[in-house]
Amino acid sequence: MLALIAGTGALPPALIAGRSDVYVCAMAGFPPAVPVNITFRIEHLGSLLAHLKGRGVKEVCFAGAVKRPVIDPAAIDAATAPLVPVIAGAIAAGDDGALRAIIGIFEAAGFVVRAAHELAPHLLPVAGVPTLRKPNAAMMAEAVLGQRVLIKLGKRDLGQACVIAQEALVAREGPEGTDAMLASVTARCGILFKGPKPDQDLRADLPVIGLQTAKAIVAAGLDGIVITAGGVMVLDIDAVTDWLDAHDKVLWVRPEANV
């Protein structure tokens, strides 16, 4: 059996569609858009691990957004007490460091951690341009800069997206996420560039775009979306492509290049 540690957003529903062998777990305060089998607190993580073993769970997948919880020392149960140093270190670390630490806890408990795109490989599009409009020379230059920006951000364990226009950085993703970044942008050209961080563990927090992203870049006045092939999932790519085509925008699934 597979346990899905589900957060908010559209990814958890996409992963469990048509499956009956998934046990859904949600951290308190971050209800996913799918039926939940058990809600847990981070202070009870050790008890959750024991519960999952008792249910016959062998594999675990992390999908969806959550924010760092505040640990209540008084609420830590006996099964979680030995994990407190690792959990505290994870919460104090950057995003990727925190995810690596939590994955390590589950692996140490005997679970196999699966990547979301392993469960739904169709969400990871192949390199190419599915839209009618194709990238021009300006967009190609903007993509090169976008990749360089993400490499620098990734080395600091920061965001996975940025906006580039006229070969200049316009905005970069912060803790609030891509949608919040795009809501702050008003442009007449440019791209959203999105991809994983360098050396990111792709079993958690793999970047995702969907129809909401397509609508947001149109509202922001951008020319299109450039994502890294093999590193960004696309939810309902047909709907995304149709929306972008209707507004003469580009979706470019770009092979990662040496920059």
Write the layout of secondary structure elements.
Layout: E1 2-6, H1 11-16, E2 22-27, E3 38-40, H2 45-54, E4 59-63, H3 84-92, H4 95-108, E5 112-114, H5 116-119, H6 137-155, E6 161-165, E7 168-172, H7 178-183, E8 191-194, E9 208-209, H8 211-220, E10 224-228, E11 233-234, H9 237-246, E12 250-254
Parallel strand pairs: 1-2, 1-4, 2-3, 4-5, 8-10, 9-11, 10-12
Antiparallel strand pairs: 6-7, 6-8
Helix pairs in contact: 3-4, 8-9
Descriptive notes:
- With 259 residues, the protein is α/β, with parallel strands linked by helices.
- Helix content is 34%, strand content 19%.
- The protein has nine helices and twelve strands.
- The protein has helices spanning 11-16, 45-54, 84-92, 95-108, 116-119, 137-155, 178-183, 211-220, 237-246; strands at residues 2-6, 22-27, 38-40, 59-63, 112-114, 161-165, 168-172, 191-194, 208-209, 224-228, 233-234, 250-254.
- β1, α1 and β2 (22-27) form a beta-alpha-beta unit.
- α3 (84-92) packs antiparallel against α4 (95-108).
- The model has no long low-confidence stretch (mean pLDDT 92).
